[in-house]
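Reading is simple: each integer encodes one residue's backbone shape. An example follows:

___
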Amino acid sequence: MSPSPLRGGVRGGGVVTSAERTGETSRGGAWDAAAAVPDPEVPCVTVADLGILRSVEIIDGVAVAKVTPTYSGCPAVLAIELAVEVALRDAGFEARVERVISPAWTTDWITPEGREKLLEYGIAPPAQSSNSIRALFGETQVDCPQCGSSETERVSEFGSTACKALYRCTACREPFDYFKCI
């Protein structure tokens, strides 16, 4: 997995006073506020876990968060942008969110922590790198997040959201979502 090429948020910590809202401390606090926003469609992961929060910078006193949608038709993109803006404002920052569409987001940007959270939530994380021809156009081996069996079958190309497919485990008989490689 390769990390997001623009994921440059500085992770700071704690409460940031107005006197400290300069430099790295301010940017770190802004990153932390934005990074904690949960994805509205998959609430077990944050926008940082998914890698869609690209960066947070302080520009002329304004926290500017750059966000990349998972795909161009994602119905949650406006909700995510508004939630990031609200989180920054609640943390005491003037805020602006910018949508960045290039380079396009890929499931390779999901952090290892995000993949683990998906699995614990019952969603099979993407199995292969998005640049794999097999991942994009072939059958992908998906292990069951409930029992770990590799004896699974795709039921539908689309699951609870367009970015997930519906699978069924033939071993434990449980249905589950698989976060598709993009």
About this structure: Residues 49 and 136 are 22 Å apart (CA to CA).
